[in-house]
Every structure is written in C-alpha cells, then in structure tokens.
Predict the 3D structure of the following.
Amino acid sequence: MPDFPLATALAVGTVVLDGGLATQLEAQGHDLSSALWSARLLHDDPEAVVAAHAAFAAAGAQVATTASYQVSVEGLAAAGLDAAEARRLVVRSVHLAERGAPEAWVAGSVGPYGAALADGSEYTGDYADEIGVEGLRQWHRPRMEWLADAGADVLACETVPAAAEAEALLAEADMLGVPVWLSLTTVVDGDGVVRTRRGEPAREVFAMARDVDAVVAVGVNCTDPDGVLAAVGAATASGRPVVVYPNSGERWDAAARRWAGTAGISPAGALGWVDAGARLVGGCCRVGPADIAGLAATLAVDDQLS
C-alpha cells in the first residue's frame, strides 16, 4: 500500500478504484452462481481471488476491494461453515487483496444486509424498516471489526439501499474510528431527484456523514452511469470527497440471475464526474480490467492537463 492515507490522496487529486471483482472472477472461468457469490472462492480457490486483484492492479487500479461483500455468518452457516470460519475468510480477503495488489490501498468490502440474502433485496432495501437501525448495527458489526483488525486501509460500506442501513453503518464506523466510505445505490426519479432504492432523498442520507470523522468519502455504486452526475451533486451535501463506481449500464435480473441491457460506461463520461467533484472513480458490476485501464489512462491525461 502507499505510505500515506487514502484521505491524503483525495485531498490532492483523483484515485482510481478497481472494477467488478465478481466480473473478473467469472472472466477467469469461475462459476459464481451460488448464494455466496464471489465469497465462495475465498474458501475454495483463494489464488483465483489474488489473480483477479492483480488483473485490476495491472490495469491501473489504486484500490483493491476485498471479496468480502457477500460474507456473513448467516450465509456461511447455510453453507455449512461456522462463525470462526466466517472471520477467517474475512481476514483472508484482506490478505489476498494485499498479495494481488501490493501497491494499492485495500478497501474492505462491507456489503448490505440484502446481499447476504442473495435475493436482490440490496436493490430495494425492503428489509430496513423491519430490522431497524440497531438490528442492522449488530448485524454489520462483526465483519466491520474483522476487516479493520485484519488491516484494511478503509472500509467500503457499499451498495447501501436505505437510509436506516446508512445510519447503522455510519454509527458503527464512528464507534470503530477506522476510515470508511459510504456508497449508496440510487436511482433518479422523474423529477430529477436522486433517491435511495428505498425511496429516500439521497442528499439527506449523504448529509448524515457530515459530522462522522471516520468518513473519507460518500457517493454511489452499482447504479446506472446515466445517474452518476446527479448523484455527485447530491453527495456534496456531506461536505466530503465523492466516490463513484457505477455498473456497466446493464441491469441485474435477480429472478433470472443474469444481466440485461447494453453496457454504457465510458472513460470520457468519467471526466464529467471528476469535473463535478468525484475523487474516487472506478466501476462495479460488469466493469472489468480493460474498462479500468481506459479509465486510468483518461484520468491520468486529465491530471496532466489540469
């Protein structure tokens, strides 16, 4: 990893994130159709995870995001693994990222509660009201602590679909005192308002991070590239640097478990996001090393011209 914090880098320029880790693992020939998704390979084939991180690092990614997005005690228990194994795999995810991308910052992926359900509910947030802020804090706490203890440079609290879950993650981050970024998954409504998947105004959710010292950035991921520019504007309510890593423009059909639509992310479009205030820029689902290489090259040229 670099010898200075990620927050320091964001104060002076743009940092390139990696892309979709699962996308690259599938490109390497791995079947991720199980409920554990890419987390299965933490147990079954850790060297594949190292190779995926290395591919993004070679493409110019300055941040390696761990394969812990889908890891939960409950999900692993359903696969016959206990809580001790869950912790071991979370810790392993950090070490694999360090091996695959030794010059990068390691972002410990903290996926939403819905991701562990493997039913697409991270794109609705329907569970948030029933579980509540305190329940979500308790659910997220172990993984966040394990990632921090394993040495992750920052925790990526990502694909967050609801205000209640954002509140829970921010409260846990404040308690842990480790650097985090908060990334919502959002949509833009017919009036041009950026909203969480649960329907709350994203600007109000981003504003929750204003007084949480642990937060190094807020923004969006796993959203349509066409909605990113509006989301950058909404994220400025936090007073923090902005992180954006959209998907390819295709959409996940949870029932059919496949992607539909046409890929639309472009490095040139990312320049508009940076001009609007984005400082952490990368990709999410269906964004591979070639896309990140184009993004890194375009942003490097932009930095030279600035």
The mean pLDDT is 92.
